[in-house]
Each structure stands twice: as C-alpha cells, then as structure tokens.
Amino acid sequence: MNDDYAPLCDADLVRLAVRDDHAFEALVTRHAAAVHRLAAVNVGPGAADDVVQDVFIAVHRGLSGFRGDAQFGTWLHRITLNACYRALKARQDIPLDDTPEPAAPHDPAHAGEQADLRGRLAQALQTLPREQREAVSLRELSGLDYAEIAEVTGVELGTVKSRINRGRAALREWLSRAGVRP
Predict the structure, then answer these.
(1) Which end of the chain, N or C, is more open, meaning fewer C-beta atoms within 10 Å of its C-beta?
(2) What tens digit of pLDDT does each residue of 19-71 get?
(3) How far apart are CA 154 and CA 74, in angstroms?
C-alpha cells in the first residue's frame, strides 16, 4: 500500500478513492485479505478470488454513491456477502477443497495438519444454515462485533447472538464427530 495513505482512516480514504485511483488501490489493499477470508468461507477457497474481484468492481462502481451512513467496513461486508450468494446461485455444488493449502517448507507435518484442520472447518461451516454461517464467519473471520454484524445482516442484536451461539455449538458438535479435538 502506498505509505501516503496508511495513516488515513477508511472514511477519508473512501472520499479520496472516489477520484483518485491510487487511493482506491490503497483501499483494496487494506481490505482484500478480509474480503477473501469471508468469501472463502462462504463459497470455498477456489471461488474466493472471483468473488473478491466482483466485490471490488462493485465497490468501485458504488463508491461515489456511498454516503457514509454506515461504516465503510459494514458496507463492504454486505457487498461481499451479496457477491458470495450470487456466486453460490451460479453453481449447484460447492467444492470445499479446490486447491490444497501450500505446505510450509519449515514444518511439512504441521502444515499438513493445519491444512487438514482448515479443510474440516470449511466443511463444518458449510453444514450451517446460511444465517448462522454468515454470523459466525463475520464474527470469527472478519472480527466484527455483534452490533456491526447486526448492521451488516439487518437483524436485531439478540438474533445475531443467538445465531452465533447456535452456529458455534453446531460447529463443535460436527468437529467432535469428525474427530477434531480442541
């Protein structure tokens, strides 16, 4: 990211990005990893890159209309989830392991275990109902607090808490049955 933009908050960077391609590039760089993580959970790792591209095309097109009523991150997460749902509608099956995780050269055994665990977690997340998967991934992968999740999803705070609790319980149960121990 261009260091000139690093100290800027998202709101200032968004205002600049409307007319400055370098500022938009800095905005993309700042948020691409989080968008990719959320997309990978919802559509699988193989389709996540396409979703990320769709998200930032949509952001670029909609940036001039972004009024700032919500935080940029909230708006971005909603665009990401919408792009994920469009991608899921475009295909019938969800490949959970399109490409294996690259093994770390320093500890192949540990890297293999981590890749296996990530694969099992991705499978477990896919078993959750959409609302629970959405809430859990926004909390655990995107690091949003409950109020932010409520804003992104458009539901009450209590509903968010309930979805996360049910989702976590279902994940624990599924992973336990799959032999994954904490």
Answers:
(1) C
(2) 999 999 999 999 999 999 999 888 888 889 999 999 999 999 999 888 888 88
(3) 11
